[in-house]
């Protein structure tokens, strides 16, 4: 089966502003971790062929044990393709001993102008089988909501 996890959201910001938030270290630390997690970037190289390592820490690990340790997920993310301001393609590899989380997942962020905002669609392919699809899609949607809060102008 060719599994594709997907989530999308219209965000009231220009594609360039969203693209910039996808390639800014401080921005990613602020909005990328889904609800229930916080993130820290340890390595940073924002160019095609570069990437970053993010340590995601569960605020309540009893609810969702980590893939790398009891309370963390460590993921090495590569920038496979950067097309300003339309697309960011990332490869993600979890650091985990459990083979159910092995493999390289590809996350593609499509940014399309939509009226005064941007339709952001995230598709994930090659998702390790240990990652529940519904939970993953909920996490992507949570990150998109955080992204919207981060880039949308305040009242």
From TrEMBL:
Pfam families: AHSA1. Residues 13-152 form the Activator of Hsp90 ATPase homologue 1/2-like C-terminal domain. It comes from the Bacteria. CDD domains: SRPBCC_CalC_Aha1-like_2. Transmembrane segments: none annotated. Belongs to the AHA1 family. This is SRPBCC family protein.
